[in-house]
Amino acid sequence: MHHWALRRGDYGWLTPDLVPLHRDFGGEEYRAAGGAASRILVQAAPTVAESRYLLTLADDDPGVVGVVGWVPLDDPDALYELAANPRLRGIRPMIQDEPDADWMLDARWAPGIEACIARDLVFELLIQPRHLDNAQRLLDRHPDLRAVVCHAAKPAIAEDGFGAWAAGIAGLARESAAACKLSGLVTEAGAGWTRADLRPYIDHLLTHFGPDRLIWGSDWPVVTLAASYREWAEATADLLGGLAEAERAAILGANATRVYRVGGVSS
Question: Contact 217/233 with Cβ under 8 angstroms?
């Protein structure tokens, strides 16, 4: 999930027209929403300053067990600086915002990716279906990179985008060791979503990643564009209802603990 403070001024995407989101969100608001006792904070701005801010929150709040930050991939020193704080557990370049679908394959970013490997950090792939083939090429180049696909690569559920997404995400699951976040789906489905809308996507992810490589995420507070934290959590519980208890527990917390190498993550 995310925490942010508007006064910081580096959330370029967070404009006033996003009425539900255009305010501060932090630990107090998260607990009021019924969130889990422990959580991993994920960057929402492409700045090192925001990553430092999230690490400060983590230092002050024992409920924050890890941070996924942002660094310029052509400046590994920035990554090493942030990684001096053991609560940094990953980095997330905002690939989805780059107009060039080949952006991630640029050789300029290799030093940052190799630094991520050297520090044993998770590399989060914030991508869309158009990036899936290149994501596989990137992971082929860096076989030791521990990767997590954000928001299941953001299938266009509201536009019936299953076909444009399904083969690519299945291929990435088959050809790599990447894990995948079970998150962001209600936002992609949009207002008026139903559990039936989500089911084919979640079933597809379960088929190809299995319950040991899926990581539940709230994507709070962005999720509130389409659902409350509780509504998304309840929908997930229903849609995973056919799994064994241990499999549900893995998706809802144990996998995050293992992949991000933190303690105490649960839904």
Answer: no
Within 10 Å of residue 244's Cβ, how many Cβ atoms?
9
Q: Give the count of domains, the chain.
A: 1
pLDDT tens per residue, range 145-193: 999 999 999 999 999 999 999 999 999 999 999 999 999 999 999 999 9
Residue 212 CB contacts under 8 Å (≥ 6 apart), including other chains? 250, 255
Asked, for residue 24, whether it belongs to a domain, the answer is yes
- Asked whether residue 1 is domain-assigned, the answer is no
3-state secondary structure 161-195: CHHHHHHHHHHHHHHCCCEEEECCHHHHHCCCCCH
- Whether the full predicted model's pTM is greater than 0.85, yes or no, is yes
Over the stretch 83-94, which tens digit does the pLDDT of each residue have? 999 999 999 999
SS3 64: strand
Is 266 a domain residue? no
pLDDT of the residue at 105: 98
DSSP 73-116: TT-HHHHHHHHTSTTEEEE---GGG-S-TTGGG-GGGHHHHHHH
